[in-house]
Amino acid sequence: MEYVLVDLYGSTLDLFEDFPTAREAVVSTLRDDPDAADELLVMAYADGRQIGPAIAASQFVAPTKSYFAQLIAGYLINWAPQIELGLPRRVDPEASIEIEWETEEPDPDAETLLQSRSPVLC
Amino acid sequence: MLDRDLLHKQEVQASTALRVAYRFVNFSQPDDPVAIEAFRSDAELGKPPRGRSLRIPELREGLSFFRTKELALERWKGIAEYARKRDPLAVPKIGTYLAAVQLQADSGIFYEDLEQQDGHITVWGQPEVLAAGIIEIFSIEG
Prior knowledge:
The complex is a heterodimer. Chain A has helices at about 20-30, 65-80, 110-115; strands spanning about 1-5, 10-15, 40-45, 50-55, 60-65, 90. The longest helix of chain A has 14 residues, at about 20-30. In chain A, a hairpin with a 2-residue loop joins strand 3 and strand 4. A 4-stranded antiparallel sheet of chain A has the order 2-1-3-4, covered by helices on one side. Chain A has a two-stranded antiparallel ribbon with strand order 5-6. The radius of gyration of chain A is 16 Å and the shape is elongated. Chain A contains 3 helices and 6 strands; from the N terminus they run ββαβββαβα. By secondary structure, chain A is an alpha+beta fold. In chain A, about 30% of the residues lie in helices and about 25% in strands. By secondary structure, chain B is of the alpha+beta class. Chain B contains 4 helices and 7 strands. In chain B, a hairpin with a 7-residue loop joins strand 5 and strand 6. The relative contact order of chain B is 0.28. The interface of A and B includes residues 7, 13, 14, 39 and 41 of A.
């Protein structure tokens, strides 16, 4: 299994041979560059085939209190939460979201392996 | 496997096997005025270095391409579906077109192919030269 750090523009940024290293690389990137949260994914590859996203950088960030304050203000002023982008967020390495497989027919073995290593919910 | 902590940049020459590569773009016609802009590097655009380009700054002056159309489309599908799942109304940043670009020999075009499974390669060249090399643009249906 290979883990490829990609951005949402389609570029490959780095490559890792195991899930923990890929995960740490994402968290490390976010610590220096929180804006990357909306732009980075780790794709899993096996036998020359893209299995699907294994990690989304967005799973490691959580809204700050000011996020909620601005969100409420947005509702009060505009009746719509249209101010989400660009708000401060905090990096939370323990945060966890299980990424749904994007391929129609994921490799069962690869999926099991990833789920056993990747943290929680959907 | 090539050492990813080193740069493996080589010039496209007459003997180079790789002569056509694929890049995501946001326009459908090769003569579109914005075509050249699609071939500006992260360094030119002022984007921050991420991943391997933190270790090898010269990568920021290159552009992401794919060896084959099929591998590019596979990447597109994974990213576009993920982006749409997060926000169904969002326009995927990856764009909806794929340009096949001829890498002309002896035109100051360089490339690095780490033979990765995802088919990704890095290409260096003048934006005008790369844009002039577009031989076909495919609309990606998702």
